[in-house]
Amino acid sequence: xxxxxxxxxxxxxxxxxxxxxxxxxxxxxxxxxxxxxxxxxxxxxxxxxxxxxxxxxxxxxxxxxxxxxxxxxxxxxxxxxxxxxxxxxxxxxxxxxxxxxxxxxxxxxxxxxxxxxxxxxxxxxxxxxxxxxxxxxxxxxxxxxxxxxxxxxxxxxxxxxxxxxxxxxxxxxxxxxxxxxxxxxxxxxxxxxxxxxxxxxxxxxxxxxxxxxxxxxxxxxxxxxxxxxxxxxxxxxxxxxxxxxxxxxxxxxxxxxxxxxxxxxxxxxxx
Length: 271
Description:
The protein is α/β, with parallel strands linked by helices. About 30% of the residues lie in helices and about 20% in strands. The chain contains 8 helices and 10 strands. The protein is globular, with a radius of gyration of 18 Å.
């Protein structure tokens, strides 16, 4: 289940993407190639893009991160749109991309480690919930620098992200002992799932945030089918599922599909 060749995708219009790929070009590695496009990276699923992706095992999107809050951020997430409403930022309605829970976990831990070791003070390292385009069937993720032009052009941030990409490509190993899971609930920046991805045996592929509730059978099936590894269970950020009615709705869908689940708050409790 190894990944042998990687494509690093960035937009020529994206200062953070160019920052990352410029730093990454300093690394000599036959395992990856670059693909620079002249449009928004979230719209990179044109026929010529998909044809390019088909030649690689894994796609890494190097990108800027934008938010209303000017927080210094290094983030990782899988792209895709859970809702059936017209997507605002690329991809297809109700479609998400393929995610490798194991690769995502190891990449996130590398990003956290490299940020600390390079004294990149002030940057928050976080997972994000699955969101925006493109929607592709190749295992992939976004790795981003946020959230303003100052950070996008920060060479030290670009170095840390580039080193993380190089490190994970060189060091990734399939771990059959991790439990493969998807997360449901909580805010976009996933503090509870961050902790699990870093410090537990769980490997998380996709995160459905509270703002995408209510979940549907179609949504859950799509999430499981777009997890590269075989699923073990679903983790629920119980307090992040809204009121009791909303929580019960999630349970009803999972029970109907005969899916095993655990509440995050119950994981460390004694039986």
